[in-house]
Amino acid sequence: MFNSELLKKTATVLFVLVIILLVINVLVSKFIAPAEIPKTREVLSGIEIDKIFNTALKNYGLYDEWIVPKKLKNFSGDSLYKSYSITIPKNLPVHLILLELQELFWNDDVVIQSEEIKKANKTILKIHSEDKLKLAAEIFYDDKIKREYGTIAFLVAGRFTENDTKLSELLKIPELYYLVLVPSSDSKKILPVISRAGKRYALLLNDDITELDYKLAENYSEDRLKKSIREIVGTFHSALFFIVDDKSDLIESSKFKFIESELLKRKIFLAKKSAFYELNSNDINVEGKFNEFVKTLSRKDEKILFVGSDEYLAIAQVIPAYRKIGYKFIYPGDIVIKR
After folding, report:
1. How confident is the model at residue 271 (pLDDT cuts 50, 70, 90)?
2. Which domains, and CATH codes, for the chain?
3. E strands along the chain, which residues?
4. Of the residues 112, 126, 264, 300, which has the fewest C-beta atoms closer than 10 A?
């Protein structure tokens, strides 16, 4: 025989679950509704379609020599403005290019069709407007080609504190970078926060070290300097490497050689700040300065940018676009250790 009390409890639980599911369904319908296609869409000419098509290819870093205008078999007619034979690297799915095209043509009266022909190892792409074929392309994979656009790493400096909202913003960014800390009690307090966020950091030695536990004053005896060095290394033992500001009084001091030798004894790698690049931007032109920097990179370049927290918060917004082209973003330690 069934336990009536158990049945009542089960019925109550099921009723609550139904209510919860209904609420979730309403919320999903309201806030996560699919994007609607615009009601009035603009008709495009063949010239306009061709321009946007090439923009999509450039957004994924395809070289000019991979995009070859060519008459294609079975594609002709007065409406056809351009046709191409395109070669892309094996590690760039055609699907990503199609998604890019859909996004760029979202407000336009354009129909994009694609067909994978496995026997010929190619994808046929057709773009129509007003039910007329305006552009056609055949896309092939080639495992002998690859996009090479240089490599960038970031060191992000700031005077961070335990309840710093800017630090919280930085730690939420899903990119590869190191924070740069200066030895202080505030820096010590945020080490667990950095660790919990799965982030890494480097330690900067400069003239801003003022607290007695970490101070490296020129008038200190060697024993007193050793005590500060032990405190610095012990507290910030998880630093990936140390940086010294080579424009500081610290590096010019008569005691710096001793400090450097003590760090080397402890197998601390010490990099000079001048080895890294800086943007020297302001709040208005950060993205422009970063774009200028990116343009200086050759295919084999690996450069580290030393930036402030405000600069990085702005740059982080555009990193996905540069990655899409083919630029690589790695940890600065991967470059420093290699050097």
Report:
1. very high
2. 46-142 (3.30.460.10), 151-338 (3.20.20.370)
3. 67-69, 82-89, 111-117, 122-129, 132-142, 151-157, 178-181, 200-205, 242-244, 270-272, 302-308, 328-330
4. 300
